[in-house]
Write a structure and sequence with these properties.
With 455 residues, the chain is an alpha+beta fold. Helices cover 51% and strands 7% of the residues. It has 19 helices and six strands. The strands form two sheets. The chain has a four-stranded antiparallel beta sheet. A two-stranded antiparallel sheet has the order 1-2. Helix 2 (16-38) runs antiparallel to helix 4, helix 5 packs antiparallel against helix 6 and helix 8 (151-170) packs antiparallel against helix 12.
Length: 455
C-alpha cells in the first residue's frame, strides 16, 4: 500500500491541462466580478442594506461601506493575475481571501457555486499552476516545468467528482423523484420559452427532468473520468448546463462548470487550446516545452502540503453529512443544509411577524421588517431559522438602544415547503433573545409533521 502511494505521488504528467485551467478559471472569475459590478449589485447587496446576516463564527466579516468597491477591484485584479500566471502564489491567495470575504459578508447571497469557487481557489494555492505557459515561467527558467506531478491535476478532478456525485445523492429523495418537486412548481412557469414552453407543462417532462438530473449528477463524473465516454460526457455537460442557464437565473455557474469539466481531457487537447491562444496573442509556446520535470520528494514543506490537502478532502467528503447529527427533516430545519451540494432542491415561501415585548413596562408591538431589511433579505430570513434568530437578536439590541428594557422577541412564522400547505414554523411562545446560535439542535423549530424519504 505504501509503495502504491509513493508510486502514485511520483508520477508526472504534462502541465498543459493545469495551465489551461488556470487561464480560464481566472478569466471566468474576472468576468464574474465585472458582471456583478456592472449590474449594480455591490451597492444593492452590500452598501444599501442596514443590516447583514453573518455566518456563525464569522460575525467579524462585514461589508466595508464604500471600500467594498475596492475589495471587488482587488478580487478582479487578482483573478487577472491568476489568469496570466503573474506572481501566481500571491495572486491566488489574494483571490481566495478577497472572494471568500465577499462570500461571507452576508449569507443572504449564499449560492453553492460561490462556495465551490472559494474551495477551488483554496485548493489552487497548493497547485503548481504557474509552471507552464505563464508570465512567471517566462520570467524564471528555474520555475518553468513542462511536466508536473499527476496529483495536482487529479486534485481538481476529485473535487469536481465530489460536487457532482454529492449533488446526485441529494436528489435521491421522495420529493424530487416521486413528487417532481420543486420542478413541478418552477418548470410550468417557463411557459413563454420558445419550443420548450409547451413541453414544460407536461407531467412526464417534469419527471424526466427530475430523474434525468439525478442520473446526470451521479453518472457524469465517472463518464468524464472514463476516456471512451469522455467526449459524450462533455457534450452532456454542455447541454445540461446551457439548459439550466436557459431555465433558471443562476448567473455564471453553468459556464464555470462547463469550463471546469475540460480538466478531464488529456494534455493533447489542452496543448491545442494553448497553441491557439499562443497564436492569437503572439506567444512563443515552444519556449515552455523545455522537457523539465517538477519533482516533489514529500519531505518538509511538501509533507505538510500533503497533510493539508488530505485534511481538505476528508473535510469535503464528511462535511455534507453533518445534517445527520440533527433530528427532523433537513429541508425543513436546514441545519446542515448549506455547503453540502444540495442544489435547487427546495421551494420555500415564508412569512415571519416579529413581536417585541418590553419586559419592564409590558409594552408590546409588532415590527415592520421593511424598516430594517431589503425585500431579498426578508424573503430569505422568513424561511431559515438561523436568519430568524440573528434578526431577533438585532431587534433586541436595536430597541434596547431606543430605551426599551429587558426586551423579549417572539416570532409568528409560517412556511410552505415544496408545494405543501403553509404551516407554523417557529414556536411563537419561545422568547428568542436568550437563544444562542451554535451547532446544537434548534428545538424551537416546530416539527415538520410530514416525511421526505431520502439521504
Amino acid at each position: 500500500m505504501t509503495l502504491n502511494v509513493n508510486t502514485y505521488f511520483s508520477q508526472t504528467t504534462k502541465a498543459a491541462p493545469l495551465a489551461a485551467f488556470r487561464i480560464f478559471f481566472g478569466l471566468m472569475m474576472f468576468a464574474s466580478i465585472v458582471r456583478f459590478w456592472s449590474y449594480g449589485w455591490i451597492d444593492k447587496l452590500y452598501i444599501q442594506p442596514k443590516f447583514f446576516f453573518s455566518y456563525y463564527g464569522f460575525e467579524f466579516v462585514q461589508p466595508l461601506g464604500s471600500w467594498t468597491y475596492l475589495l471587488f477591484a482587488v478580487c478582479g485584479l487578482s483573478a487577472l493575475l491568476v489568469m496570466v500566471g503573474y506572481q501566481y502564489r500571491m495572486a491566488i491567495v489574494t483571490f481566495f481571501l478577497s472572494f471568500t470575504y465577499i462570500e461571507l459578508m452576508d449569507k443572504t447571497t449564499y449560492l453553492n457555486h460561490y462556495y465551490f469557487i472559494s474551495i477551488l481557489s483554496f485548493l489552487m494555492i497548493f497547485l503548481p499552476a504557474n509552471r507552464y505557459f505563464s508570465v512567471d515561467a517566462k520570467r524564471n527558467d528555474l520555475l518553468a516545468s513542462e511536466y508536473i506531478p499527476n496529483w495536482s491535476i487529479d486534485a481538481i478532478k476529485l473535487l469536481l467528482v465530489i460536487v457532482y456525485f454529492y449533488a446526485g445523492l441529494a436528489k435521491l429523495n421522495s420529493d424530487w423523484l416521486l413528487e417532481g418537486m420543486p420542478l413541478k412548481i418552477w418548470l410550468p412557469s417557463k411557459y413563454d420559452l420558445p419550443f420548450l414552453g409547451d413541453l414544460l407543462q407536461k407531467q412526464w417532462v417534469i419527471y424526466a427532468f427530475s430523474w434525468g438530473g439525478a442520473i446526470y449528477d451521479l453518472a457524469i463524473p465517472f463518464l468524464l473520468l472514463h476516456r471512451p465516454t469522455r467526449v459524450f460526457a462533455f457534450v452532456l455537460v454542455v447541454i445540461f448546463h446551457v439548459l439550466t442557464r436557459v431555465l433558471f437565473p443562476i448567473g455564471m455557474f453553468p459556464y464555470i462548470m462547463i469550463v471546469s469539466a475540460t480538466i478531464f481531457f488529456d494534455a493533447n487537447f489542452h496543448n491545442q487550446v494553448l497553441q491557439r491562444l499562443a497564436s492569437w496573442f503572439k506567444i512563443n509556446k515552444a519556449r515552455f516545452d523545455n522537457g523539465k520535470v517538477l519533482v516533489q520528494n514529500w519531505a518538509g514543506k511538501h509533507r505538510l502540503k500533503l497533510g493539508l490537502l488530505t485534511l481538505f478532502f476528508v473535510l469535503q467528503l464528511a462535511f455534507p453529512f453533518r445534517h445527520l447529527a440533527y433530528p427532523g427533516e433537513l429541508f425543513w430545519h436546514e441545519q446542515g443544509y448549506r455547503f453540502s451540494w444540495r442544489v435547487m432542491l427546495m421551494e420555500k415561501a415564508g412569512y415571519a411577524q416579529f413581536k417585541v415585548v418590553d419586559g419592564v413596562s409590558g409594552q408590546q408591538f409588532y415590527v415592520d421588517n421593511t424598516d430594517f431589511l431589503s425585500a431579498f433579505q426578508e424573503k430569505q430570513m422568513a424561511t431559515q431559522p438561523d436568519f430568524i434568530l440573528q434578526y431577533a437578536h438585532f431587534l433586541k439590541e436595536h430597541f434596547e438602544q431606543q430605551g426599551h428594557e429587558n426586551v423579549e422577541v417572539y416570532v409568528e412564522s409560517y412556511v410552505a415547503l415544496n408545494g405543501r400547505r403553509s404551516r407554523p414554523y417557529i414556536d411563537p411562545e419561545v422568547n428568542l433573545v436568550p437563544e444562542e446560535e451554535s451547532f446544537k439542535n434548534k428545538n424551537w423549530i416546530l416539527p415538520f409533521e410530514d416525511d421526505i424519504k431520502g439521504l
